[in-house]
Amino acid sequence: MRFLSLWTTADIRSVTEPDLKTDCRHMRWDRPCAPHKRRGKVCSSCDEYDPIQVRVLMVKLAATGDVLRTTSFLPAIHATWPHAKVTWLTRRSAADLFVGNPLVDEVLTTEDAVTAARLATETFDVVLCPDADPDAAVLAAMARGRERRGYVRDGAGQVVPLGPGAAVWLQMGLSDAAKQANRETYQKLVAEVLGFDPALVREPILVPSAADTASAEAFVAGLPGQGPLVGLNTGAGGRWAYKQWTRAHQETFLRLCTEAGLRVLLLGGPEEVQRHADLLAVSRGRPVYDGGNHNSYGRFAALVDRCRVVVTSDSLAVHVAAARKVPAVVLFGPTSAAEIELYGRGSKIVPADLPCVCCYLPRCDRVPHCQALIEPGTVLAAVQHWLAVAPTNR
Q1: CATH architecture label of 210-389
Q2: Residue 191 has what pLDDT?
Q3: Is the full-model pTM beyond 0.90?
């Protein structure tokens, strides 16, 4: 009797290969595959056999909005490497963005100890790192890969660009002046970092589940009134204080919207609980409703789906709207308007004649600051434009 510890890889393959197609995308190793469980398929005769030809690792950490907008490169990945298996490495906070995403096969998180073991033992055909983030770059360098694109971190702790596009993006990230002068979108710039044809880049991908969609539809159907529903994303994350529109302007905007016959759905996260309470209090008696502050990414996307137009700062909601093909009116101040791609469905509002926009300062002492200069009437006019030209089946 031969013990397993004495078996070679060739011995094991000689037993498994006639029956098991171990290169199939559906292979799960520790359990039956989905075609077998759901439809009784077996490897020897399975017509759903999908052999993996290229294994791609995308290393993208950063904020959730930034991770979501980078899913716009997934079609380019699959067009460049047909029959690719895509593994995405990110932080745990962003992992649920990929639930239901048909172009990502698995998600690894930096907080999981198994991830380090996977990177140390598995070999990927291509490792992609679109950011000069030192944490992402060191993970990209650590991963075993036959080809690397974007950035790695070397033995001296320096981030190294692996091509001319990566060098340009690195320099731009280190220079406020270069950021202000830039007129290219993130999608165009990062396509050059990763060596993709920019024409292959599409919208971000965020897919609400059937349950999330049904829940959002039922919630919106229960709201009083008949006017078009406009989403107001009230927050902006915590990094740049003046990405968030002022409370006073949000209050005025709600009044103007409701006087114009519109209904407004407040959209936000846990940080906006008090802001929503305050806005609801001053809008009592008007068709202003709270979409909740603790939605999953899928339910948030499903709520955005029910809006005719979304008003938001440069934040996660911009990219959710793009993923769901909902027009967005986006308010800019400290970050780059040029880098944000709206796919022809939206308006960018930037304070006029303000030389310090796109400063990337966490805070500033200018009074009035950039977001205070964006007037509610201007925003309402943009909303009404998109209500007139956008589909009415929402």
Answers
A1: 3-Layer(aba) Sandwich (3.40)
A2: 98
A3: yes
